[in-house]
């Protein structure tokens, strides 16, 4: 019984041997080392959510006419489990992930998964695979809850059958090489989201549409792409997989407003922590012209990206077909570092958690 949800547990009959697991966890990278199990819940319109279980991780069998393959009804979440100094496995704000998952489902005309089932599935998986949380510096267990349309049909309508799963991956740092600050590419050719679109939903289509821009960023030696608004192609919105903050010389901070921007849980946490310290945090439009001008004048002191995978990472340089400038000294500034230290300290149990964000598993 987990958060009111009962999951049938079917342990993997052939788990990865402990010795091999230890080798894999020495340098897990990001998103390539997977655990032994997965959680799964099925949905049918006439039965609702049913058949909750944790079973051996393995391939799925899909009919070629499965709706997701043709109409892209799919959503997902990203979250992490951490190991505290006391040896406990903990989650960071899983209730917020559950709520955002429901919002994404509503936007994509999919059934809403109750929060207790979402959190229960995550906890059940972490509980059985907690030995996969790596002990390396910055290591964690990245959790990927996702849901897709599994009904077999060809026709443009919401599916009546869905499959919800949670898989887990042992991870280290998101950016290779543990960079002090990353370089971003401003896309002038592509946009991520438009008013009335799916920008605020965490659906695969948003990321698929941005892959060509991310590839362009990589071709130009950059770590991430920055998207501008789809209407005027002027205002900064977000990066390819994370939100963005600007820190000014008066101590205030700014982040683009929601609407077409994904409501990041790390974003919300940063705003709460900063405001509790008396920092003015504005949610308002910020243009590329202002970004370049403020960086040149010194008014803009720091810029950082934030998200579950990246945590809080400084942005040191901006490039693009019309842009090329450095922020501050090109490294991590004191505000960025302080916020990152506080957030990771709360997540990992090395600092007090005044917000009740951390949830112990088991």
From TrEMBL:
Catalytically driven reaction(s): L-valine + 2-oxoglutarate = 3-methyl-2-oxobutanoate + L-glutamate; L-leucine + 2-oxoglutarate = 4-methyl-2-oxopentanoate + L-glutamate; L-isoleucine + 2-oxoglutarate = (S)-3-methyl-2-oxopentanoate + L-glutamate
PROSITE patterns xref list: AA_TRANSFER_CLASS_4
GO molecular function: branched-chain-amino-acid transaminase activity
SUPFAM superfamilies in the cross-refs: D-aminoacid aminotransferase-like PLP-dependent enzymes (SSF56752)
Pathway(s) annotated for this protein in UniProt: Amino-acid biosynthesis; L-leucine biosynthesis; L-leucine from 3-methyl-2-oxobutanoate: step 4/4; Amino-acid biosynthesis; L-isoleucine biosynthesis; L-isoleucine from 2-oxobutanoate: step 4/4; Amino-acid biosynthesis; L-valine biosynthesis; L-valine from pyruvate: step 4/4
Coiled-coil boundaries: none
Required cofactor names: pyridoxal 5'-phosphate
EC number in record: 2.6.1.42
Protein name: Branched-chain-amino-acid aminotransferase
Keywords: Amino-acid biosynthesis, Aminotransferase, Branched-chain amino acid biosynthesis, Pyridoxal phosphate, Transferase
Family of this protein: Belongs to the class-IV pyridoxal-phosphate-dependent aminotransferase family.
Keyword Amino-acid biosynthesis in record: yes
Biological function: Acts on leucine, isoleucine and valine.
């Amino acid at each position: 019984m987990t958060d009111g949800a009962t999951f049938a547990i079917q342990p993997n009959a052939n788990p990865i041997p402990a010795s091999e697991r230890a080798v894999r966890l020495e340098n897990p990278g990001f998103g390539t080392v997977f655990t032994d199990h997965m959680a799964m819940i099925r949905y049918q319109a006439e039965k609702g959510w049913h058949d909750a279980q944790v079973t051996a991780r393995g391939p799925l069998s899909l009919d070629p006419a499965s709706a997701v393959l043709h109409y892209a009804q799919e959503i997902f979440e990203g979250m992490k489990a951490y190991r505290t100094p006391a040896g406990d496995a903990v989650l960071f704000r899983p209730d917020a992930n559950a709520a955002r998952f429901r919002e994404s489902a509503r936007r994509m005309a999919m059934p809403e998964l109750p929060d207790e089932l979402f959190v229960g599935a995550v906890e059940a998986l972490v509980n059985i695979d907690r030995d996969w949380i790596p002990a390396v510096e910055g290591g964690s267990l990245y959790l990927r809850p996702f849901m897709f349309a599994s009904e077999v049909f060809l026709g443009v309508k919401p599916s009546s059958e869905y499959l919800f799963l949670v898989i887990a991956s042992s991870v280290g740092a998101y950016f290779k090489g543990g960079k002090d600050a990353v370089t971003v590419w401003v896309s002038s050719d592509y946009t991520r989201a438009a008013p009335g679109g799916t920008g605020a939903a965490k659906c695969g289509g948003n990321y698929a549409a941005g892959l060509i821009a991310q590839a362009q960023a990589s071709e130009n030696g950059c770590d991430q792409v920055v998207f501008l608004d789809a209407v005027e192609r002027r205002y900064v919105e977000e990066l390819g997989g994370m939100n963005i903050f600007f820190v000014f010389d008066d101590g205030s901070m700014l982040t683009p407003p929601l609407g077409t921007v994904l409501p990041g849980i790390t974003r919300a946490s940063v705003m709460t922590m900063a405001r509790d310290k008396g920092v003015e945090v504005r949610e308002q439009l910020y243009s590329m012209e202002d970004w370049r001008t403020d960086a040149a004048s010194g008014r803009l002191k720091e810029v950082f990206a934030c998200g579950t995978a990246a945590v809080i990472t400084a942005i040191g340089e901006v490039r693009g077909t019309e842009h090329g400038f450095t922020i501050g000294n090109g490294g991590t500034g004191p505000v960025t570092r302080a916020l990152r230290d506080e957030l990771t300290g709360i997540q990992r149990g090395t600092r007090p958690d005044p917000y009740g964000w951390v949830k112990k598993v088991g």
